[in-house]
Design a protein that fits this description.
This protein is an all-alpha fold. It has 6 helices and no strands.
Amino acid sequence: MRKKTILISILSLFFIFSGITSLAFEIYSFLKLDILNSEIIYWIVYRSIFDSMLFIIGIGIWFGKTWSWWLAIFFFLHVIMRETLKLSFPLEPKQAVGFIFPIIMILILLNKNVIQYLKIDFSNRLKKLFIFSILSAIVFSIFPGIYELGLLH
C-alpha cells in the first residue's frame, strides 16, 4: 500500500487551491469587464483551461493517479516555454520567478516519494519526455496561432 506523505498532501492541496483561486480570479475579471472583444475572450479561455488543469492535477495527485504527474509535467513544460519567450535582458525579478518556479515544481515532482506514490514508470523516460515537450510546444503554438489567424474575430 502506498503511503501519502506530507509532501504529496501539500503538493495536491497546492494544485487544488491554485486552480480554484486562479479560476475564481478569471471569472471575477470576466464579470468586471465593460468591453468584450476576441482578444479578451481568447485570453479568458486560454487561462481558464490552464487554471482548470491545476485543479485537475491536484485531485489526481491526491488520489494517486499517474496521469496527474504527466499532466503536471506537461503544464510546467508549457509554462517554461511561455516564460522563455517572454524573457528580456537584463532579467527582472518577476521574470526570474516566472521562469524558476516551474523548474522548482518539476524538481519537486521528480522527488522519490512523489514518483513512488504516483507509480511513475521511467522506462523509455527520454522518449516520454521528448513526446511531452513536443506536445507542449504544439499546444503553446496553437493558441497564439488561432488568434493570429483571425479565427477568434
